[in-house]
Amino acid sequence: MVTAADSTLPELDAGELVRWRADGGRLVDLLTAAQRLGPVAGFRIGDRQVVLVTGPEEVQHVLARHPDTYVKHGHRAKVLLGDGLLCAAGEPWRRQRKLLQPQFTVRGIRAYEPQLRAAVAAVADRWRAAADTGEVRELDADLRYFSLDVIWRSLTARPLDEPTYRQLVAAGDSLAAIPAFAPATGESDADFSRAVADADRAAEHAIALARQADEPTLIGVLLRAARELPDYDETLVRDELLTLMVAGYETTATTLGWLFLLLDAHPEQRDLALSAGPAGSAERAAAIRALIDETLRLYPVAWLMPRYAAETGAVGGHLVPAGATVLLCPYLTHRDPEVWPTPETFRPQRFLAAERRPAPGSYFPFGLGPRACIGAQFAVREMTLLLEEVLPAFRPEIREQPTEAGYRLTVHPDGPVRAVLHRAENRL
Ligand code: HEM
Fold first, then answer.
1. What structural domains and CATH numbers belong to the chain?
2. Is 87 part of any known ligand binding site?
């Protein structure tokens, strides 16, 4: 499908690539240099043509309007997650998405609200105990436990236990080590055999728990499909439940981690959010939502989405040849001064109703189009419930934090975040 392609793709030349490698070879720097060439720009690594798409209109074109031309292709997580939603393609993907979609609408996730609230209460209890003793907590580990606990409870109707937590984190860590896109050839595939064994054990345990549950569970939905649908079997139940856990926990935990770091640097934003309205009010909920939206603007954890051009096409008037790797990078679109005024400033107010909503394609932390995140409402709900509970109750005093962001499968704080939790004196 070729539509009016009238100009040559602006490309970084070989000299720029040599300089980039000499300067440390960080992918984010290469992409930043390419973005300076325009909303659609390219470079070549060996015989591989890479096209970076950062302009809002062009992002829409690729993700929302032509998902059958720019397709997801050979995700390396498949070794661990099999044919679950994240890695599936074509008709099987469509069937699986249709099965799960109703569970993840605003209405659908209400069935799991008690589980979300129980996980929030568990964190608040832990933090209250820590505040009383002055213990230094690893905030990132607490947030990781929380977001895995939320999904585990929604899958099984039971709280997460420590041994399973350790198995899942070990499996998740192997995935997190995968680069979002590997331009430097020679990077060997991670050895996933331990991770697969850990993940299998956790999946078996989850299925056994869900079979005993009386409450609604996500695994219950999958098991019913395995009983009733001809193309659904128990291997797919395993793949799907692991996909939901892995796709859902690191992303949410990392977003919350960035949010606490941003609030540490901008404490007035915590107070502004809490003074927007009393506990439980729509005004406070909107202000907390704006904190989440602005965090995801600056740190869209799924910062890079690769696609494969299944046929030759045109993006923003530039020819994109079949076989090219097309990269969408919300991290760069969200920080483009042409798209967002003062993009480096943390200003949640830009998401509040009085100001302009972002134009389509200019904000896509959850992706866009048919392959957009199925768990977006779920993630926003769990983060909102946690923040509504802990922001008024605690003031984390951060004692240690990384100075750099790491850019692998996610953009994440590159090291532990340690904090002492003080009880907030004037609980708002
Ligand atoms: C802040 C939290 C989250 C962020 C930023 C996020 C981001 C994303 C993005 C950008 C995609 C699309 C990737 C692409 O187009 O290449 C995606 C897909 C997906 N996400 Fe999320 N996600 C989050 C939380 C969750 C949660 C909580 C779940 C499940 C409970 C989840 C499950 C999935 C699944 C299954 C897919 C694949 C959907 C498909 O291909 O049909 N995510 N996510």
1. 14-359+377-423 (1.10.630.10)
2. no
